[in-house]
Predict the 3D structure of the following.
Amino acid sequence: MKKWWNALSQRERIMVGLVAILLTATVCWYGVWRPAAYLHRVAASRYALALEEKKTVLSLVARIQAIGPVRKPPIAKPLAMVVRDSLIAAGITPGRIEPDPQGGIRVAARSVPPTLLFPWIASLQTEYGVSPRHLIVVKEGEGVLSLDATLNDSGR
């Protein structure tokens, strides 16, 4: 390489140096600066979008907090009766319904289709404010589940 450089005339060395400078500048401009500037613009627009979404979420949170917690009216019937009636209304045959020593009701059911079980649990929570403190759901066979749960009335 040194022999080749020394073999060049002064004018050729200047031209090769200018071409090297121009090539370096072009590679830096198109290979480094432009991609970095593009990525910066993309990040800035994503950041602005995130700030707008944050404002929306905070305003919705404020509206939800202004509404306050939804209090269910106390259940007029005993919890065991509510659970039994809701099981029967959902088409689920209870295997066991008994009081729990720590409060609440223990429930067991076998051979329950998931299309009945999970809507029943959701309806207990939304309609009566009864939620599971302990919940075990096990697949028994094709399309059927068994349930073992301890249910508490969150309003009591």
Q: What stands out?
A: DSSP finds four helices and four strands in the chain. The mean pLDDT is 89.
